[in-house]
Amino acid sequence: MWTVNLIWSCPMRIILVMALLWQYLGVASLAGVLVMLLIMPITTKLASTSHKLQKKQMGWKDSRLRQMGEILSGIKVLKLFAWETAFMRSISSIREKEAVTLRKLAFVNGTITFLWICAPFLIAISSFVTFVLIDEANILDPSTAFVSLTLFNTLRTNMAFIPQLVAEVAQSRVSFKRVTDFLLSEELEGRSPDINTNDSNAIEIDGGTFCWTNEEPPFLRDISLSVRQGSLVAVVGPVGAGKSALFSAILGEMHAAEGTVRIMKGCRLAYVSQQAWIQNATLRQNILFVKPMERTQYDLTLSRCCLKPDLKILPGGDLTEIGEKGVNLSGGQKQRVSLARAVYQDADIYLLDDPLSAVDSHVGAHIFKHVIGPNGALSNKTRILATHDISVLPDVDKIYVMSGGKILESGSYRELMNQKGEFARFIEENRKKQDEDDEDSSPEANENEDKTTKRMSSEDLKALMKRTGSRLSRSISRTISVEESEKKKAQFIENEKMEIGHVKASIFWTYFRYATLHLTLFFMLGFAAYKCFEIGSNVWLSQWSSDEPLPDGSQNVPLRNMRMGIYGLLGLGQGISTLIATIIMAVASTRASIRFHKSMLWSVLRSPMAFFDTTPLGRVLNRFGKDINTVDVGIPARLQSVVTLIIAIIGSLVVIITTHPIFIAIMIPLSVVYAFIQIFYMTTSRQVRRLQSITVSPVLSFFSETVQGSSTIRAFGSQYEFIQRQNKHMDTNCRTFFTSTTLNRWLGVRLQFLGNTVVFITALLSVAQRNVYSPAIVGLTLSYALSVTENLANFVRTWTMVENQMVSVERIYEYSHLASEASWKTESINLDLNRWPSKGAITFRNYKMRYRAGMELVLRGINVDILPGQKVGVVGRTGAGKSSLALALFRIVEPTEGTIFIDGIDTSVLGLHDLRTKITIIPQDPVVFSGTLRINLDPLEEHSDEDLWRAIEQSHLKSFVLSIEAGLDYQVSEGGENLSVGQRQQLCLARALLKKTKILVLDEATAAVDLETDKLIQNTIRQEFWDCTVITIAHRLYTVLDYDRILVMDKGTIAEDGKPDDLLENPHSLFYQLASSAGLL
């Protein structure tokens, strides 16, 4: 900000200097003005080019950070699939394009610097030459030469700021344009739903056609619906039918091309999204949201949403930090927290987007009965429920059936069944899939019974297991579930580290080493040569001005011409050395920034999951954004200024001391005062800079979190509260910025005083020794003394900026040396990885695991042998260790003790890449990335288009891909926003089909798809993985009833192991109790 004043003060000073030059050189000064006028169009053109390159570089930076954000959000999927190298190549590709632009920008700015450094000399020589040539009577005496030289030095100092100002103005223009474009972009306030005056209907849509933007084709067509106040309405349909989009339309998140949305006046909305949005806060804060604590209501909400048992597991109870995106909760727990948030707000209208899909069946039954259903806590509220669970449909007041963005049918359960239309076929497909008992087939019976509490005998259950065939499972809890957080401390997120004291010399050494030492040396020598040429030209000018005229009073023309020629050559030397130095600096700094980014990127990608679980995304993005940008742009410019200023100060002091050796004695106390000011200022400003860097991270993290949950925040009408929270983070950051600005002012006042002292003492010495030195030498000394003042002030300020910006290098270096996972490639054993594993046998031997040092074990002495081709279901209550067992296979967490063998090979001796590429997982949360469908399916580019199309067909995405013109080159938006959750899950299935390994782990693979697609996917898995070992970690027990084997986990151990029917023979077994709780007995 301190440079803002230079925008007007530099041009004003330049004008004043030119006016003073007119007084001394007269019309000859116009030659200098002409030189300036010739230079300015060139620099203007270069400034325009710099602006364009700056804009282009910021575009690449945005693209890189956007993809980096996606990578960090989906880092677990990257690790499970061993995709780190593929995504590193993708980021590096963008970074290389950014680096090319940076290099071009550095060359352009270097040329601008060259021109502006040459400009004062060119103005000087043109003015002096013109002065002596236009009139033989004009003698370049010391007074004229050195007053002019002092003015030229002032001109040089001010013009030296021009390149920096040009670059900063260009960058500011780009930033202001981007902010302006954002502020002028379309806002959602104009799409707010109309107020409905009909007292009987809470929500009405009449002939609505909706699209995401004005430029896109309609996504929902001919939507007409009415929801009576206090009723429960269900929305059903296949994947991509438009159920979630309908909710977005009601919330005003879509553009209404036709029709209107009306909501009853005064009604408050609550929204539970299909993918739960969790804040990086405590569990209590997530539920309270913006409402104050009311203990009775809060406790009731916890009970109704089945969260009380989870509080006993979490170390800090409801004060436990959840972590970014709810990383230490299972998918079901996140969904229940999201539901509890909505329930606690006590709204009038509830939009519930499939909140039961991620929870255990018995938990879902409890939630529907006690929260959503006719007798639940929300029974007097208006509720719209999107669901795939048909068991709840007989209990709703009205059902809307959607497909292809349209409402096909609507009515009560009985009416729709009697119509024998889409809904009836939908129900029939579900019945065939689940093989329900005959008692479920009658709609009339369904209306008279509570479907959520049906019971089956153990004999009936065994019959059901036999009929279901080899259907595979669809549940594994979210990767780090509560069993992982079970032993964690209440404070989950670690505080950001801040160094104390000066930036270590090793950090500077690292920067110069990354820039390559020989280039750094040549860069410094280039500017040293520039200063030598400058001092030489000024000394030469002093001798020129001391030349005596001929006896007749005329000039010695041959001597004058020789003086002018050499003076010109010395000036040319200044320009050439500057140009060479700036080009070397451009090459060296770009090389350093590329190396820093590459080393930090690989270090972060190879960090264990514990790092990502305890580090907010914004903190990491801050390193890749602000810190890398400082290394790219800030440090090179400041280093160049520092080197120039150091050489200038040394040169000035050499000239002064050569003229007045006694000045050395005066320099000692002045140096002590100067050192004290510098140390005091730098010590303080360094820590302020570090505080600035640290206070930026919460701003970015909270902003990112808020953007991700913007739909939920707007639905609750809580925009103001979140803006205030963001303002609080901004205020904290701005306080450090204000402190930094006031420190600069403190420094400026003291250095001006110190510099004026140097000038005053030099002037006194010159007057005292006026008979010893010629006027030319005295003038030269005074001109350099005057330059010391500003150079000293600029040096301390610029050096402080360098050290402050080196904090970014310090922070990058820290992230470049994070603790890494185990070796990437296998090195210690001789194994044919192309054929391993050939069977899929898995053995756990005394396997123990904890998530971090000092925490308790989450797996306690697991011993189990899984035979090749076995289908194994892993079940257990929340916190039993199911997810931990799955993560152990992939070595997401390393064992504390014990071993896992796959086909007889100890997995701990394998490289993580070799291990993870030989096991496949279909995760519960379908993570996709921006880019083409092709890249999302095959980031490593290992498969042909024929393979991709086969996988798409087998995952039942072919009809969708064929319906879009781009096909495999269809661009998936950030986070997969232009795909439904079900389509994203099908995409994850296609990845597994492409990988096709001997071991498959299923993570609730079909939770978000409709029943018909679920059946097709299950058939595909059954057919394609029939000879593979399949491990399903299940919440819904009916999905594993037909498996070869069940492992029941309890408190980190395998409590029971056997065939499902054998375990059900014992009414005291844990499996029997789980089945009973799920309503299967």
From TrEMBL:
Any idea of its EC number? 7.6.2.3
Q: Which UniProt keywords apply?
A: ATP-binding, Membrane, Nucleotide-binding, Repeat, Transmembrane, Transmembrane helix, Transport
Does Cell membrane show up as a keyword for this record? no
Domain ABC transporter per the UniProt entry, residue ranges: 203-429, 844-1076
Describe the reaction catalysed, as an equation. leukotriene C4(in) + ATP + H2O = leukotriene C4(out) + ADP + phosphate + H(+)
Record-linked PROSITE patterns: ABC_TM1F, ABC_TRANSPORTER_1, ABC_TRANSPORTER_2
Principal localization reads membrane
Where are stretches of biased composition, namely Basic and acidic residues? Answer: 448-460
Q: Where are the transmembrane segments?
A: 12-39, 105-134, 511-530, 566-588, 639-657, 663-682
For region Disordered, the annotated ranges are 430-460
SMART domains in the cross-refs: AAA
Q: How does it sit in the membrane?
A: Multi-pass membrane protein
> Which GO terms of the cellular component aspect does the record hold?
endomembrane system; membrane
The highest taxon in the source lineage is: Eukaryota
The subcellular localization recorded is: Endomembrane system
**One MF annotation (Gene Ontology) recorded for this entry:** ATP binding
Q: Does the keyword Nucleotide-binding apply?
A: yes
Domain ABC transmembrane type-1, by residue range, is 1-171, 521-804
Q: What family name appears in the similarity comment? A: Belongs to the ABC transporter superfamily. ABCC family. Conjugate transporter (TC 3.A.1.208) subfamily.
Protein name according to UniProt? ABC-type glutathione-S-conjugate transporter
